[in-house]
Amino acid sequence: MRTLPLLMIAAVLPLSGCDYIKNLVTAKPDIFYAAFGEGYAAKPDLAQLEYEHPLSAKELVKVTPQYLDTLSQEQLDQLYARLPAGPIPDGAFDGSIVFPKGSSGKLRLAEILGGLKGLAAQFKGKKLEIIGETLWKGKVFYRDEKVLRNRIEDLTILRPIIGAGEIPKISVDGRDAWLLFPAKLYCGQSLLDSRRESIIIDYAFTDELPGYRERPDSLAGRNGLKVRDEIRMIRPGLYLGRAYLDRAFGLNFILENKTLAKAGEADFLAGKIAQECWSGA
After folding, report:
1. Number of structural domains in the chain
2. How confident is the model over 182-214, as pLDDT tens digits?
3. How many whole angstroms separate alpha carbon 77 and alpha carbon 15?
């Protein structure tokens, strides 16, 4: 029994490798978060917060997905509001959902979906959780085309809705994923903080995009869940996102490309990362 913890560690390390060790020893960023209460009047002024406690590149390079998992929703909001949009990404990004500490994003999604009709009804409860946490593996940005597609790793649940036919695939780090749910990509107003733009991932007119399949792509569109995502850059290769359903906030998500993160760190620390979206005054 004494050797069991060691065996468990030995089993985990080969799976996660150097990243696991790095996350254990990396210092947490020294980022200030203002005090807040439950009601709207008890929330901090985001412009004043940024004026008094701006985020530095030195601290943002320390931010990891594991650190983001420890934050409350209010802290995630305060972090997001102080971020610039950064450059519009290009290529494949790994994705993960962030359910804030001490809250149940799953229950919140259930509340929002409860009022929607049509296709959304087929994805209430457990099916939506499975798609969000298990099947969705990230996004692929086609920067020049101003289009994005989502990476779905397993079509078992979606196949009855999709029907027969070939679906485009992509291989990322040796793992295949199907490309579904296309969206338009552009700079636009943030629904949380309108002082500066975010990168918008808009599914409203997904049916106008090349490769659109009514089943299941319409699920995210204007006749389905009315999904609209927005993202801002924490540092090169790492973006914090917010997903809205019919303009109601649903959940947070993280997009990460470790290759881009490593290549862009020096320029980021030197302040050489270009802003493509309006960064405010």
Report:
1. 1
2. 999 999 999 999 999 999 999 999 999 988 988
3. 32
State the CB neighbour count (10 A cutoff) for residue 10.
10
Tokens of 90: 């290009």
Domain of 91, in residue numbers: 3-21+28-269
Any domain includes 231 = yes
Residue 235 parent element (H or E): strand 227-235
Classify residue 263: in a domain, yes or no.
Answer: yes
**Residue 272, Cβ density class (10 Å: 0-12 exposed, 13-18 middle, ≥19 buried):** exposed
- Kindly state the average pLDDT of the residues 143-157: 88
Measured distance CA(53)–CA(97) in Å, rounded: 27
* φ/ψ (deg, to 5) at 197: -80, 160
Q: What's the confidence (pLDDT) of residue 167?
A: 83
Q: Give the mean pLDDT of 209-227.
A: 90
With a CB cutoff of 8 Å and minimum separation 6, the contacts of 27 are 62
Q: How many CB atoms lie within 10 A of CB 174?
A: 5
Dump strand ranges (E) for 236-273: 238-245, 248-256
DSSP 136: E
DSSP of 162-180, one letter per residue?
H-SS---EEEETTEEEEEE
Per-residue HEC secondary structure of 100-129 comes to: CCCCCHHHHHHHHHCCCCHHHHHHCCHHHH
3-state class (DSSP) for residue 211: coil
